[in-house]
Automatic annotation (TrEMBL):
Pfam families: Lactamase_B_2 (PF12706). The keyword Signal does not apply. This is Ribonuclease BN (tRNA processing enzyme). GO terms for molecular function: 3'-tRNA processing endoribonuclease activity. PANTHER family: METALLO-HYDROLASE YHFI-RELATED (PTHR46018:SF4), ZINC PHOSPHODIESTERASE ELAC PROTEIN 1 (PTHR46018). Residues 18-210 form the Metallo-beta-lactamase domain. CDD domains: RNaseZ_short-form-like_MBL-fold.
Length: 243
């Protein structure tokens, strides 16, 4: 499995960057996890829009889904230009009024996932865990070929993350706040929460993502490292890891 970070900013994209968007690839199959503001622009450094095989959305906040509209336009224009465009499935929960917007002509189809069941998308098996956030949101455990990536999406810390993330190869954990701040109230986690989770779940690598627009991001890494002795990385545009 190969993970490519397209965008990793919480709330909105920093200049020339993107909010949440991650390409997970296995055997030439490209799954785009979240499609926030700025993602479609940066994604084209790695893939053309027509090469995305499926999209899955954690929740319907703009920093996780707002580029779906322009992705649909890209497919429409690509089709007019004679490119080979097949209908793109966009998986999401339906607990939101925006779900119908995921279906557009014959270019994209909104697909409801059942969070209580394992979902198969191409080579990936995906399990879900409801998060603690201001709107319905689901963390995902994505597995293929004996490897696993857990993406917390947006959430306050919860004990249920520990068993859900157990022994995963990569924990892609949100860290929208610094140590000592009240992240729970905002439905997010701190660097310290991320480090604690990585340690309790005995994960292989921790990547801090959904990063804040304030403070020194290196402090986030140091704070997480105080709770977790494994490898900690700060998400950054274009970071690629193969597991
Ligand atoms: Zn977010
Ligand atoms: Zn959110």
């Amino acid at each position: 499995m190969k993970l490519t970070i397209v965008g990793h900013w919480g709330g909105f994209p920093k200049v020339n960057e993107a909010s949440s968007g991650y390409i997970i690839e296995e055997n030439g199959y490209h799954l785009l996890v979240d499609c926030g503001s700025g993602v479609l622009s940066l994604l084209q450094n790695f893939l053309s829009p027509e090469e995305i095989d499926a999209v899955i959305l954690s929740h319907h906040h703009p920093d996780h889904m707002t580029d779906i509209g322009v992705l649909q336009h890209a497919l429409l224009i690509g089709k007019h230009l004679g490119k080979s465009v097949s209908t793109l499935p966009i998986y999401a929960h339906s607990e939101n009024h925006l779900f119908p917007t995921l279906t557009y002509k014959d270019l994209t189809t909104g697909m409801v996932f059942n969070p209580n069941e394992c979902l198969q998308i191409g080579p990936f098996s995906i399990l879900f865990l409801k998060t603690i956030h201001s709107v319905s949101c689901y963390a995902m455990r994505i597995e293929a070929n004996g490897k696993s990536i857990v993406y917390t999406a947006d959430s306050a810390y919860q004990d249920a993350f520990v068993s859900f993330s157990r022994n995963c190869d990569i924990l892609l954990c949100e860290s929208n706040f610094y140590d000592g701040m009240d992240a729970t109230k905002a439905g997010h986690m701190t660097s310290t929460d991320a480090g604690k989770l990585a340690s309790l779940a005995a994960v292989n690598t921790l990547i801090l993502t959904h990063l804040p627009h304030f403070g020194d991001l290196n402090e986030l890494k140091k704070e997480a490292e105080q709770r977790y002795s494994g490898k900690v990385l700060l998400a950054e545009k274009g970071l690629t890891i193969e597991i």
